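Worked example

This section walks through a single chain of length 216. The input is the sequence exactly as stored; nothing has been trimmed or padded.
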Amino acid sequence: MALHLSGPAGRLEAVVEFPAANLSRQPVIAIVCHPLPTEGGTMHNKVVTMTARALRELGITTLRFNFRGTGDSEGQFDHGQGEQQDLAAVADWVRQHHPDHLLWLAGFSFGAFVSIQASATLAPAALISLAPPAGRWDFAAATPHIPWLVVQGEADEIVDPDAVYRWLEHIQPPRLTLVKMPDCSHFFHGKLVDLRETVKNTAQHWLPLTGNGAAQ
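Given that input, the structure is written out below as tokens.
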């Protein structure tokens, strides 16, 4: 379902997707954030779409959107600050229209940065971060105390894996699941199926309803 939401810099292009009809729906909506728009990142990025697919296979409704200045979204790139405001506007829409649903946040690369930073104020029920760009962006946010999955490729050519591990060791999040993916590049080339299974295998333990019957 395509949407145009009202954001702080104008229209935000978004799409809501629902689990398959044979799955029991979870009372969860996950917003999945895309990588750096100045490097071609959009809500159609394959890592973003695969993550959203994995969550829908657990019975979760997903929402992908384009940050300001990307695709059909209005405004201009704002180095992560305005993008956090965009995410907050989308989260407000979700909570207004689905007050009985939990909010989860997910993001890939720059989208991981935005969603981690915004989590301090948006207070999601869970967080998924793929190749969070520690060492490239300033992660000056409160340590998430919610269930949190971080997936990091060991052969990432853009984000230094060791910088990610040092950052996580420094903040010591109490409910972190860290998955190090061997021989995996930044864009998860050839590893998207592994990523899908990693997301599902971890996130299934966070579901509010048991006996979901989601596809394995």
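What to look for: Residues 95 and 101 are 7 Å apart (CA to CA).
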